[in-house]
Write a structure and sequence with these properties.
Rossmann fold, alpha/beta, about 170 residues
Amino acid sequence: MTQRIGLYPGTFDPVTLGHLDIIRRGAKLVDKLVIGVTTNPSKSPMFTLDERLAMVRRECAGITDTEIDVRAFDSLLMHYAHSVGATIILRGLRAVADFEYEYQMAGMNQYLDASIETVFLMADVALQPIASRLVKEIAYLDGDISKFVPPAVREDMLARIAAKSV
């Protein structure tokens, strides 16, 4: 029997409770879940790639439903999926706007490699409004982000903001 490998790509800057919800639920669908941490040239990251990798690894340490492998990548998603043996790409959806973008991406990815399926998971209703971009904005403006990120990520963010304001 072949191993079902899933790939959950993202920038994870920072990793949120919404991301972790998708990771936990997605881990139940595959034998191995690769979390691909990437850069996005159109975004200004709060954390370096190495910091984000460490953060995601730390927050996923307690998830035992399947093997989880957190890796960096900086290539075309479908090339990367093929290189790790993924047959499933996991994507989280929060709202209709997410669906429109993700639907277009899934269509393009299918043209590139029809053997890799995209599986959409709806974020838990309580977590749907959470977006890394908004969490960073709230944190920079001294708002409470404890409902959006794990405690250690909150501390990482507050430390980063404090260091930048010195």
